[in-house]
Amino acid sequence: MKVFLKVFAISFIIFVLVFSVGVMAFNTLMKEDSADFDEVVARVEEDDHYDKDVEEIDELLRLVQESNRINFIVLGLDDTRSDMMMFVSFDPDEKRMDGISIPRDTYYPRQGYTGPGKKKINAAHGDHGANGVKTVVTDILFDVPVDYYITMTYQGVGAIVNSLGGVPVHISKPMIYDDPYDNPPLHINFAAGNHVLKGPDAVKFLRYRQPNPGSGALDRHGDIGRIDAQQEFIQSAISKAMGPRLPSVAGQAFRHVRTDIDLQDVMRLATAAVGMDMANVQIATLPGEASYQGGVSYYFHDPEATRDRLMEIYKGSTEE
């Protein structure tokens, strides 16, 4: 399964905030109405993973109500599944952006969907559309509102990377992995050292989780290690994106991205984001741990630590 370039999720929002490419291009290429899904998303109350301390949540929601932050959910789509999901919060007053990567295997059981795969959060998009995913993420994040969605397709990732002219990375150990059953077959083979990766190779770099058995190559130990590598990748990519290549990168992004953001909101946010320092972009992973249930691997998020992270974001904490 394909995991998308989280770095470009953040970069694209920065493009939207800092560089608007015109009314006609926006309305024609980017703005969409979410697909017509009538079914309401309802979580199954079957465990204690969602216990919420009412007093603490009241304090969080008070901070939310007093804040001018604008929140997005960014989805990287592989067919109908959202194999990349990131909550991004922009503070126009402090010119700050905070992200929380949500692992695709995050456990989220829904009423009427009993299959093991359907209990993973990445299945929600195919059943409920992008607006349904906004509802799911709002529930996981203690009713912190998600104002807008932004979706990217796998086919567009390579074009966006190429418009950057490639992204420099350092690979500490060889990366060797083959999956002949993927469609098309996946073959990853990078030597240790410095590389400038373009479209398809950058996608391979960020999809990589574990090596071929016995190869002695780099092991990222699953999705969480892969997310860590992607987050380290972001500074290099944003540095290039925010330079002279910005118009080209923004143009590619607008061709391959869909959103429910209105043009007037883009212009308002663009004005607020002028002068934003890239040091004020912080990304974390949804707190939790992976474990098995019924023989299936899920990622169970930690509600208390998630709440603490949201409190840090809304209090303006710069700690990671």
UniProtKB/TrEMBL annotation:
Which parts of the sequence belong to the Cell envelope-related transcriptional attenuator domain? 81-241
InterPro entries (alphabetical): LytR/CpsA/Psr_CW_biosynth, LytR_CpsA_psr
Source domain of life:
Bacteria
The residue range of the signal peptide is none
**One Pfam assignment:** LytR_cpsA_psr
Q: Which family does it belong to?
A: Belongs to the LytR/CpsA/Psr (LCP) family.
- Protein name, UniProt field: Cell envelope-related transcriptional attenuator
Say which species the protein is native to.
Answer: Alkaliphilus metalliredigens (strain QYMF)
